[in-house]
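Problem: given the chain below (238 residues), write out its structure.
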Amino acid sequence: MRVAFVDDDPNELKILHTYFNDLTDPSTISIDDFSSGEEFLSCFTAGLYDLVVLDIFMGDLTGVDVARKIRETDHNVRLVFCTTSNDFASESYEVDACYYLLKPYTETNVKSMLDRLNLAELERTRSLSLPDGQSVLLRDIIYADYTSHRMVFHCKKNGDIISRLSFAEVEPKLCAYPYFYSSSRGIIVNFYEVFMQKDDTFIMSNGSYLPISRRKAKDVISAYSSFCFQQLRKGGVV
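Solution.
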C-alpha cells in the first residue's frame, strides 16, 4: 500500500512515521514524505496513493486546497486531514475526507485513525490496472515473469494473466510495494507467497522454483529477511 504524508513540519512528519511504524506492518506500506502541497502535487497522479495524510496549515496551498486538486482526478484515494483545531471540519466533508486527525499526535489517536481506515483490508484489495484494460489483484500475484515480449502474472485465484508489457514498465509499479522484489532478471517475487528460501532459490506457494541471481543475492536475501522479521514482529499475520 502506498501512503503520502504532506506536512511542512519535519518534526511532525517524524512523529507520524514513528507511530505508523509501531502500529502497522512496514513490509506492506511504502510512505513518501512531502514538505508542501506544491511538492506533492508536482508528483501526484490519480491512483498513485491509497492514503494521503494532509496537514491543513501549510504555506500558500492549504491541505484543503491540495485535497480539492486531488479530487479533480482521484475520487478513490483516502484523505486524512491533520490540524490543531476543528475549524475546517466542513471542508473535510466537501472533499470526502475519511478522518480528521488532531495534533499533537499521540499513539492513541493515530491508532484510532488506523482502526477506522482498516488499512489491512485496503492493502488486500489493492489492484494494478494494466494498459490493455486488465486488472490484477496485487495480493493474488504469486510471482510475475517476462517471457516472449509479454509479462505473465502467475496468480492464486485467477490463473495466469498475460499482458504485452515490458519488464521495465511493470517492475517499478510492483516494486513500489515493499513485498514485491525482483529476485533475478525478468522475475518479480511476492514475498507473501514464498514457501521457502533455499540457498539461491525461492520455492513459491504454487511449487515454482525461482532463481535468486548471484549479482543481486545480498540485496534480495536482505529484503526477504526484513520482510520475514516484520511478519514475526506483527505476530506472523499475513
